[in-house]
Amino acid sequence: MKVIDPHIHMASRTTDDYMALALGGIHTITEPSFWAGFDRRSADGFHDYFHHISVVEHARAARFGIKHYCWIGLNSKESENLQLAEDVLKIIPEYLDKPTALGLGEIGLNKNSRNELNVLERQLSIAAERGEMILIHTPHLEDKLKGTRMIMEMILNEPRLQPSRVLIDHAEEHTIGEIKDKGFWFGLTLYPNSKGSPERAVDAVEIFGSERICINSSADWSVSDPLATLKCANEMRRRGHTEDLINKIFYENPKAFLSQSPKFEAA
Ligand SMILES: [Zn+2]
Questions:
Q1: How far apart are alpha carbons 172 and 174 in whole angstroms?
Q2: pLDDT digits (tens, 9 = 90+) for 178-191
Q3: How far is the CA of 129 from the centre of ligand 1 (A)?
Q4: In what order do the strands lie in the sheet with 213-216?
Q5: What is the pLDDT of residue 195?
Q6: Ligand 1: distance of its center to the CA of 53 in Å?
Q7: What are phi and psi of 112, to 5 degrees?
Q8: For residue 11, which of 31, 35, 36, 235 sits 20 to 30 Å off, Cα-Cα?
Q9: Distance CA 241, CA 6 (A)
């Protein structure tokens, strides 16, 4: 089977992981910018990081026959440092110009704080001015619904941004309905210890349908599984879903969303 994983952090993974992705049929992946597990000290750290995901990982993936794209942005955790944010916002356009960069991401909210909202708003204006696509990170904890609503409102209030070109990630049962109703794409994240098992993701497909849904591993530097999408596809198969539907969820849907960027081409 062919799979696109639209959210995976390969900068934190090994070459063995690349080989496993290739053997499993995951031949196209996109890597959002994220928190490195620690707060970076200056914008120089972001220069190196954006170079890493837009150039270095692209080349590393290519050695395994995998197409690698990235998303550029300042994550919500580090948005609390407004001076750092100021400096990072200045360098974002340079990296959005890279042929592998699909848009702004993962940007969004973590604690729904004032500083986070301020920096998110500014990144949304960069996206609006440049006509970029967006990949949104929503809070993981109890503030998820509130944060998701705040983000959607900000996007819907900007007439130059279209919900059909925005994917709202880390959605859960209590946020999917509103995200879909407003015309956005939504992502379900498979994580071994939190954020959703394959069973829970397949339940969501059965309840909410197969339109505008993408399923991802979000594999990163923490406990996570780069092959989670394959395990979820297998759970669909076990429950008797058709290969057509499995192909739609894990290949055609992310392809349709990502192909809205002229830079994207699926393997
Ligand atoms: Zn992520």
A1: 6
A2: 999 999 999 999 98
A3: 24
A4: 3-5, 26-32, 67-72, 101-108, 133-137, 166-169, 185-189, 213-216
A5: 59
A6: 13
A7: 60, 35
A8: 235
A9: 22
Q: What distances in angstroms separate CA 98 from CA 119, 124, 261, one per listed residue?
A: 22, 19, 13
pTM of the model: 0.97
CA distance 119 to 96: 17
pLDDT band of 141, cuts 50, 70, 90:
confident
Phi-psi region of 257 (alpha: psi -120 to 50; beta: other; left: phi over 0): alpha
203 CA → ligand 1 middle, Å: 22
Q: What band does 194 get if pLDDT is binned at 50, 70 and 90?
A: low
Q: How far is 214 from 171, CA to CA, in rounded Å?
A: 10
Cα–Cα distance measured from residue 124 to residue 240, given in angstroms and rounded to the nearest whole number: 41
What is the Å distance from ligand 1's center to 197 Cα?
A: 16
pLDDT over 70 percentage in the chain: 99
Domains and CATH numbers, the chain: 3-258 (3.20.20.140)
